[in-house]
Design brief:
The chain folds into 2 domains: about 60 residues, no CATH class; about 200 residues. The protein is globular and about 50 Å long. The protein starts with a helix and ends with a strand. By secondary structure, the protein is of the alpha+beta class. The longest helix is centred in the N-terminal third of the chain and has 15 residues. The strands form 4 sheets. Strands 2, 5, 7, 8, 9, 11, 12, 14 and 16 form a 9-stranded antiparallel sheet that branches. Strands 1-17-15 form a 3-stranded antiparallel sheet, with no helix packed on it. A 3-stranded antiparallel sheet has the order 6-13-10, with no helix packed on it.
């Protein structure tokens, strides 16, 4: 069944399908909007009790999907000691960066340079460092937050495919996260230079940031933006972006900066704000 699912993804018009889904999800027609939301909540078991608004209070399905939570719904771990989970989801893979490559699944990997959209010298900064890949399922809260304090240095939007990013596709499609559309965000802070990469997927109609940006989702050319002189600083736990329909976040840290929790394994569920690593920096 997984082989058939992957084969179908090779055949379907990924971007056209995602743009169509996006147009439906953006509709503010009350009957369509509320029907979509109710059916989605029922199908995926979305916990609306923790949402700040209820059905009937959202402008569109997109507005529901990127819903804010009630104050206190995601308490933050002590950011002076720990790196925080940037999102709700589940651990896909985690470990060291070795030979300039990141593990995707058993027998499959991809390069740091590819996923960041940078040259080999920049990618080399993460050699021997740590990565974690977090998969956001449809039922999850879909805002992405800062894993650590940092000042935005640069972003690179990289156009690409839109394969599903679930476990079956990760195991069956080479270089999945480095070939899908993505936004690489790089920061400097007390934990050194680190990256948070928002990876698009099938039916994902958009990636957005809390800061003004120049890229357009589903575009055909890369967009690099430099923010060094703008002084856009964030605290650990601050919102940095959101997905319009689900996907994946990949975090990268330089060597000697963080150590993942020893009890954290692929498949483990995460909630935004919980401790995922110990900080090794002063």
């Amino acid at each position: 069944m997984s082989d058939l699912f992957i084969a179908l993804q090779h055949l379907v018009p990924q971007h056209a399908l995602s743009r169509f889904a996006g147009s439906i999800a953006a509709s503010e027609t009350p009957w369509l909007r509320d029907t979509l939301i109710r059916r989605f909540v029922a199908a995926y078991g979305v916990n609306l009790a923790e949402a700040a608004r209820g059905i009937g209070e959202f402008a569109s399905f997109n507005d529901f999907f990127t819903r804010e939570l009630k104050p206190g719904a995601r308490p933050l771990a002590d950011a002076t000691k720990f790196i925080l989970s940037p999102a709700d989801g589940a651990v896909s893979q985690l470990g060291p960066v070795s030979g300039g490559r990141i593990i995707q699944a058993k027998g499959r990997d991809y390069s740091v340079a590819e996923i960041l959209g940078c040259g080999p010298e920049e990618a080399a900064r993460f050699e021997g460092g740590r990565f974690i890949t977090i998969y956001l399922s449809p039922k999850d809260y879909h805002r992405v937050h800062m894993p650590a304090a940092g000042t935005l240095a640069q972003t690179t939007y990289i156009p690409g495919d839109l394969y599903s990013v679930n476990t079956a596709t990760a195991a069956g499609v080479d270089r999945l996260f480095a070939r899908n559309e993505r936004l690489s965000c790089r920061f400097d802070g007390p934990d050194g230079h680190f990256a948070s990469i928002m990876v698009g997927a099938m039916i994902v109609a958009g990636i957005d940031t809390v800061w003004p940006n120049q890229f357009r989702t589903h575009a055909s050319a890369p967009v690099h933006e430099d923010f060094v002189l703008q002084g856009r600083s964030f605290a650990a736990g601050d919102e940095m972006g959101r997905f319009y329909l689900g996907s994946t976040v990949v975090l990268l840290f330089e060597p000697g900066r963080v150590e993942w929790r020893s009890d954290l394994n692929p498949g483990d569920p995460l909630r935004m704000g919980e401790a995922i690593a110990a900080r090794l920096s002063d």
